[in-house]
Specification:
The protein is of the alpha/beta class and 163 residues long. It is 28% helix and 33% strand.
Length: 163
């Protein structure tokens, strides 16, 4: 089983810019994260963009949908910013079928060392192997169906919408 990992940016890949004092993108950390996690899965990494999810436009979501549709793999993990992850998952679910797609992200950049990103990536890679076709979000060891999840901004977690 081969897994496609689509990279779209989000907090996963942000780094601290010492000059401006802001978070910015340089490169992805995905290869390093897979090595650190001692991942033994057959994964194909496909960088699409490095954007904050609040900057994603319809054309970016269309690109994500297109790559999901055209990917030879039936199992796909997408790294994504948490702010608009549910919106992107909804659009994918409307347009892609017969594939297992798991979106994941991080609340703290991987480069900070105390990130939840490595754990979330490992969870997403596990979930994408065992869940049936559909679109899911994996955060903090849990998975959620695309149409029954919400980001609780007060708690900084994802939870079931009907909780």
């Amino acid at each position: 089983m081969s897994i496609c990992i689509l990279l779209t940016g989000g907090t996963f890949d942000k780094e601290y810019n010492e000059i401006t004092g802001s978070l910015a993108f340089k490169n992805t950390h995905m290869k390093e994260m897979l090595e650190l996690g001692r991942c033994r899965l057959a994964c194909r990494i496909e960088p699409l963009m490095l954007l904050d999810s609040q900057e994603l436009q319809d054309e970016h979501r269309e690109m994500i949908i297109d790559r999901c549709s055209k990917a030879p793999e039936d199992r796909i993990v997408i790294t994504h910013g948490t702010d608009t992850m549910v919106r992107t998952a909804t659009e994918i679910a409307k347009n892609v079928s017969m594939k297992t797609i798991v979106l994941t992200g991080a609340m703290i950049p991987y480069a900070f060392g105390s990130s939840d990103g490595l754990f979330n990536l490992g969870s997403a890679l596990s979930f994408v192997q065992v869940l049936g076709p559909g679109v899911y979000i994996a955060m903090n060891g849990e998975y959620f169906h695309w149409n029954n999840v919400v980001k609780n901004r007060e708690k900084g977690i994802f939870e079931t919408r009907n909780a």
